[in-house]
Amino acid sequence: AQMQLAAERKLPVVIHSRDAAADTMEILRQYPANGVIHCFGYSAEVAQEFVQMGYYIGFTGVLTFTNARKPLAALAKVPLNRLLLETDCPYMAPVPNRGKRCDSSMLPLTVAKMAEIQGVSEQEIVDHTRKNACRLFGIML
Question: What is the CATH number of domain 2-137?
């Protein structure tokens, strides 16, 4: 019902999917909605498939974790115009704050990792993710 309503009203959706990529894609293919795959943790191939479907991919402080192989590989394959920056507050605080309450003051740590993996400047990550969020949510800054 929520996906149908979002599609009818042309509203973005925020999808939180864990260990259910195939099921999530099957559902999303039924509706011409757009949105973000929040707190992305799947493979690069799955990220590319969501991007092809028109979704943005949201990354959190998980990128800074030592065991973040899948999200880092996915980040490397997601085009800049499909990236979003997230905190997942109060969870997923980036290293060296892991285990603490996450908030937006920690975003620069995630931005730095995103820039490193994408091979661009931190300012480019900030600019692209800001534009992408504005485009997705219909915000004018």
Answer: 3.20.20.140
